[in-house]
């Protein structure tokens, strides 16, 4: 069964803290994505990666960085958390080729609250 | 990226049929996804249309008109468990693996 897991379902951090959100997929997918989802704004792409050690900025990369040292793992880093980064964070992965190759499989999400 | 538009909210009655529309820019378009997302959960895949026409999958069908930049998701025999947000997402292709998501349509099914 296809599986994308995220390290935490709920996280509470303080302003200024460094925050790591981890995502792991077991489907050997090349592509991995980080989104945030806010009411009325929908899913917005933060960063994505096509391959190990590769990363590309999405629509809202400011205040975030990412790391992809292994194919199965994609980490989102908030260098200095701020209250406007309180959100639901969703990780997804997809294949590069094959049937429905751009179907994205999502993890369960991490609801981050920054106080 | 693409502009994806869909209604914010819809309400329908249990047992009825509902159609959720989605419009998008046709330039740079290569396919359209529909996802279902229950409150507090991750989006899950419903359908993917590349060619014009209707694709049926049980109670759910998805339609695409590439020339009009228009898609809809049709849900038949509505059940209470169909209350969820439905996300329309466009794929541009051309070496890009990103999807551009609409803001989602929150469907409430009432008895």
What's the helix and strand layout?
The complex is a heterodimer of chains A (115) and B (111).
Chain A: E1 4-6, E2 10-13, E3 19-25, E4 31-38, E5 42-49, E6 56-57, E7 64-70, E8 73-78, E9 87-94, E10 105-106, E11 110-114
Parallel strand pairs in A: 2-11
Antiparallel strand pairs in A: 1-3, 3-8, 4-5, 4-9, 5-6, 7-8, 9-10, 9-11
Chain B: E1 4-5, E2 9-13, E3 18-24, E4 31-37, E5 44-49, E6 53-57, E7 60-65, E8 70-75, E9 84-91, E10 99-101, E11 105-110
Parallel strand pairs in B: 2-11
Antiparallel strand pairs in B: 1-3, 3-8, 4-5, 4-9, 6-7, 7-8, 9-10, 9-11
Main sheet attributes: strand count, strand direction, barrel closure of chain B = 6 strands, mixed
Unreliable stretches covering 5 or more consecutive residues of chain B = none
Question: So what's the overall shape of chain B?
Answer: globular
Q: What does the radius of gyration of chain B come to?
A: 13 Å
Oligomeric category:
heterodimer
Q: Total helix count of chain B?
A: 0
Total strands of chain B: the figure is 11
As a percent range, the share of helical residues of chain B equals: under 10%
- Rg measurement of chain A, Å: 13 Å
* H and E string of chain B: EEEEEEEEEEE
Report the average pLDDT across residues of chain A.
93
* β-strand amount of chain B: over 45%
Low-pLDDT residue intervals, each spanning 5 or more residues of chain A: none
The helix-strand sequence of chain A is EEEEEEEEEEE
Counting DSSP H or I runs of 4 or more residues, the number of helices of chain A is 0
Strand content of chain A: over 45%
Q: What profile does the largest beta sheet of chain A have? A: 7 strands, mixed
What structural class should be given to the helix and strand makeup of chain A? mainly beta
What percent of residues of chain A adopt helix (DSSP H or I)? Answer: under 10%
Overall, the morphology of chain A is globular
How many beta-strand runs of chain A?
Answer: 11
């Amino acid at each position: 069964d296809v599986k994308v897991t995220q390290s935490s379902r709920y996280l509470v951090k303080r302003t200024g803290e460094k925050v790591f959100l981890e995502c792991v997929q077991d489907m050997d997918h090349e592509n991995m994505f980080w989104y945030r989802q806010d009411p009325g704004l929908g899913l917005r792409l933060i960063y994505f990666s096509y391959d190990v050690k590769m990363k590309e900025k999405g629509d809202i990369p400011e205040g975030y960085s990412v790391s992809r040292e292994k194919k199965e793992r994609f980490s989102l880093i908030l260098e200095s958390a701020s209250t406007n980064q309180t959100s639901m964070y969703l990780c997804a992965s997809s294949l590069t080729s094959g049937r429905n190759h751009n179907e994205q499989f999502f993890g369960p999400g991490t609801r981050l609250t920054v106080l | 990226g693409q502009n994806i538009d869909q209604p914010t909210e819809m309400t329908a009655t249990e047992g009825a049929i509902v159609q959720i529309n989605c419009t998008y820019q046709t330039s740079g378009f290569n396919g359209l996804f529909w996802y279902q997302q229950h409150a507090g959960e991750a989006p899950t895949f419903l359908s993917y249309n590349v060619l014009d026409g209707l694709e049926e999958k049980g109670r759910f069908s998805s339609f695409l008109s590439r020339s009009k930049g228009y898609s809809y998701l049709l849900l038949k025999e509505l059940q209470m468990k169909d209350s969820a947000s439905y996300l329309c997402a466009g794929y541009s292709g051309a070496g890009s693996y990103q999807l551009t998501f609409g803001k989602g349509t929150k469907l409430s099914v009432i008895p």
